[in-house]
Amino acid sequence: MQLYTRAASSCSFRIRIALGVKKLPWEAVLVDVAMQQGEKYRDLNPQALVPFLVDGKAKIGQTLAILEYLEEAYSDAPRLLPGDILARARVRAIASFVVADIQPLQNTGLDDYFEKEGVNHFAWKQHWISYRFEGLEKMLHPLQGRYSHGDNVTMADCCLIPQVWNAINRYSIDMSKYPAIKAVYENCIKEAAFANAAPDKQPDFTG
Fold first, then answer.
1. How far apart are CA 18 and CA 81, in angstroms?
2. What is the DSSP string of the chain?
3. Are residues 149 and 156 in contact, defined by beta-carbon separation less than 8 angstroms?
4. 192 vs 18, 48, 113, 187, CA distance in Å?
5. What is the fold of 2-78?
6. What pLDDT sits at residue 114?
7. Between β-strands 2-5 and 27-30, what pairing exists: parallel, antiparallel or unpaired?
8. Least confident of 46-50, 139-143, 154-158, 180-184
9. Measured between alpha carbons, how far is 46 from 48 in angstroms, rounded to an integer?
10. How far apart, in whole angstroms, are the C-alpha atoms of residue 139 and residue 24?
11. Of the candidates 145, 192, 158, which has an alpha carbon nearest to the alpha carbon of residue 71?
């Protein structure tokens, strides 16, 4: 199994976590900007994004699709979704909220545009990430255990922790305002699957 990944990509961070949680062996293929823009990578992955998973005949982009694939293809490994249908829906809702409504606000691709327009992108991102965290805090409050949903790591945690890592390390968000999110983050990051997947633990990390 190969994962096309980059340290700075929070989306790649999600899949590195999931592979660690499920204890699956994998090989990292490091994708820099030049490779990502090259024809060879586009032939393999027409979206030309990271992460991209290659597992035998399976060639999959987009993190939620990759997470669902890993859950179904490796059902004997530790699960990323709970057994109850309503619990699975809640986990997916949290994951989707992070993927669709929080991560795009942190996308570094916005920075060049904002600079051209004379917008303070750092302050803009701080404002909107904080705003979305207010909603996420309320989502996490019911049924909260050690993690986003109860006391087992789920797909929601795989998606949440990279964005909190960015919020803390790149955007100086005061996490004391979000005690539920902060508690989940602190519990997760103690686990090897999360700590080892962090950007600063990757060979291509540049700070």
1. 11
2. -EEEE-TT-HHHHHHHHHHHHTT---EEEE--HHHHTSHHHHHH-TT--S-EEEETTEEEESHHHHHHHHHHHTTTSPPSS-SSHHHHHHHHHHHHHIIIIIGGGG-THHHHHHHHTT--HHHHHHHHHHHHHHHHHHHHSTTBSSSSSBTS--HHHHHHHHHHHHHHHTT---GGG-HHHHHHHHHHHTSHHHHTTSGGGSTT---
3. yes
4. 11, 29, 37, 11
5. Glutaredoxin (3.40.30)
6. 81
7. parallel
8. 139-143
9. 5
10. 30
11. 158
CATH code assigned to 85-194: 1.20.1050.10
Q: What are phi and psi of 54, to 5 degrees?
A: -120, 120
Residue 68: half-sphere exposure toward Cβ, Cα within 13 Å: 12
Please state, in angstroms and rounded to a whole number, the distance separating the CA atoms of residues 153 and 192. Answer: 12
Contact between 95 and 103 under an 8 Å Cβ cutoff? The reply is no
Lowest mean pLDDT among 16-30, 132-146, 189-203: 132-146
- 14 and 162 in contact (C-beta within 8 Å)? yes
pLDDT tens-digit series, residues 109-151: 777 788 888 888 888 889 999 999 999 999 998 767 999 999 9
Where exactly are the structural domains of the chain? 2-78, 85-194
Sheet architecture: strand order including 58-61: 27-30, 2-5, 52-55, 58-61
